[in-house]
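Q: A reviewer asked whether we had any structural model of the full assembly, not just the individual parts. We don't, so I'm hoping you can provide one. Inputs are below.
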Amino acid sequence: MLQKRSLMKVIILGDSGVGKTSLMNQYVNKRFTNQYKATIGADFLTKEITVDDKQVTMQLWDTAGQERFQSLGVAFYRGADCCVLVYDVNSSKSFETLDSWRDEFLIQASPRDPENFPFVVLGNKIDVEENKRQVTQKRAMTWCQSKGNIPYFETSAKEAINVEQAFQTIAKNALQQQDTDDIYENDYPDPITIKPDSNPSYGCNC
Amino acid sequence: MEAGSLPGVRISFEDAFEDGGDDDQDVQFQFTSDAIRSELARQNGHAWVDGEENVVEDVQLERAAYDPDESVSTIDINSSRPYSPTSISLPHSPEPRSFSGYGAEDFEEHFRQDADRSGSPSHSRYPSVVIDVSKTESTATATTSDPSLRSSFASSDTAVSNSSDPSSSKSATNTSPPPTPGLSVPSGGFRQTHRTSRSGPSTLEQVISKTRPSYLPPKAKQEDVKHLADWEAMMKQSRLIEQQKRKARDERRLARERAVEQSTETWEKSIIPDWKNAVNDVKLRRLWWNGIPPKLRGIVWEKAIGNSLALSKDTYRSCAARAQKALSSGSFPSTTLHLMEEDIGTTLPTLHIFNSSMGPLYQDLKDLLCAWVVSRSDEGLGYTLGASKIAAMLLLNMSPPTAFVAMRNLLERHCFRSFYGGLSSRDDVEAYYRIFDTLLADRMPKIYFNFKQHQVSPAAYLPDWVVPAFLSHLPLEACARIWDVLVLEGDSFLFRAALGILASLESRLFFPDRKELLDLLAGEDKAALEVAKREGSLVGACKYEIYALDEEAVWEHIDGLNDWWKENTWTRLIQRELPDI
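A: Here is a predicted structure for the entire assembly that you could use as a starting point for your response.
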């Protein structure tokens, strides 16, 4: 419970219907379904991975894109190691809202070093015909560069294109973030060596 | 389209009940009340196909025009009249054909006569329970003789277009002996099979009234149609109004959320650093009642709850360690663990965040609850169902050690303490019930009176609300805002919120029946459940979801109490009922 965490928390944000759940499912379960079922509340998946010879559990937090997480707020964003922003390359609206999703995250999570907090942007649904595409690769890359060189991937959860690579990068960046985070003090106070029953009078408030 | 998708009304009695004797074997109809009931259940279970529904409505209107005196007959399936479970088989079938003593031929004879008499059928020769089969026949007649309708039918289905052949329709009007060639479909049996496999209106459905309970005498057809039309209009109007209301509410919510967001700076810069002075500021109260910015909830709640128990930061660690030790040695009571798991399982289930198999905060929640149980064990208190909700709400906003201190202190407030105190504080809880009753009688006398008449005491619902601090019943957003004010105002706000909830349920609380009232308060009102299911708005987030109690709805009513509420009334009631605190 209190040991040094080998768990990394990754949050996936983006408009509803861009394929957040599908990407996660493709990466973790290697499965894809065409049926759209809106995520209610949130969904969580974990995957054991090896990054730089280190065993880590990646915990993916999938949000419901159609609602803002007003009350969930802090719990949701707290302690995130990486934030994945997803949009649909066939919908410019979903691309334009990336800004507000990024802001929302930075406000709610208040990371120590917002300038260098790792984001990754995924342009999903590239399997759809070319003439339906609304956001060019160049436009997306420009945006990513302007926000401090955010890594950018074009993916297809349906065809499993680039999904593995994208999540590899996500994992790497998240791990780096953890390492820098550890330099600072943690969210939770430093573990104090526990001597069980060292103070049995606790719990009595007389 | 196939012949089977024709509007069912056109099926004559013979068609519907004809065995056909070819591809379909042994279609028999049991006219026992059980059989009819199950048929009804089957029919209700199916949604009609849209287009079809419209056609049927049209036909009903037509029917009214042609047979003004026709009435919708009623089958009283609950009739006590002992029916012999005779099976009606069809004209060509060699099986015995009798229906309560009438042979199938008699039956045919009947509706021929009926059609002749054109309306005002004498029911004298029918058994007390009437199946007005004449309807089907005369409808078919009317239908086919109407050219406009004929064409609409022809377009809807070419296979039977020959049925609108004038001669045949004429012969139908003249009640030539059935089966009328123009009306019958090649194989009645085919129709039957088709009907059972699809969800169109069945013969039974055409003859039973949908607008009048079965135990009342039938309504005139004209009236029936008019009422259905009225109902449609009313429903349309109501949906429209509902939509407008929702829109207004959404706008209000957005405006409020923007205001709360803008207040973040005030909170961060002037309130939190200058806590002691700020809390007594009148302006702050107004801001506070609007809701704390979600991001700052953890900090503000922690400050507002305070730490009167003077628990140190290490208390959590020590209690958690003790719990851990007890867990691993097996001395942690298993009933407690059981209750805890059950409680966690129903904690914000749609959020998945506390889900035992994959919820990332499940372990935190369990650790916190175990530590809480350990810390309370010295007082001889066990687990209370609902504690998980309190812990969860806090964990959503703060880290486990802070949440622990906040939880211990919050539940130490007198009202919570009483409700969480088990047997030892039963008298105090009773006192709180009396206080609530007094407030209810003052604010909503009619509801109070109805509750009294049907022995619904606050004990039946108040603990369910107070113990989990409304989290089981209200949506998270509404609840979080109640908590905002609750941590500031203290116990009295529990009662104001509870009254606000009753006020928002007010229109539903006049049921003259105890069980209905209790079901409703438990969030299990069947009617509301059906409506919510129909609208598809059900996700299972909280118990009062079915009443569409969202943040704005509840808060409208809580705010509505403000002018009436007097803090000194509360103080006086507390002094009267609980003089010792």
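A: Points you may want to mention in the reply: Confidence is low (pLDDT under 50) at residues 185-206 of chain A. Chain A touches chain B through 35 residues (CB under 8 Å).
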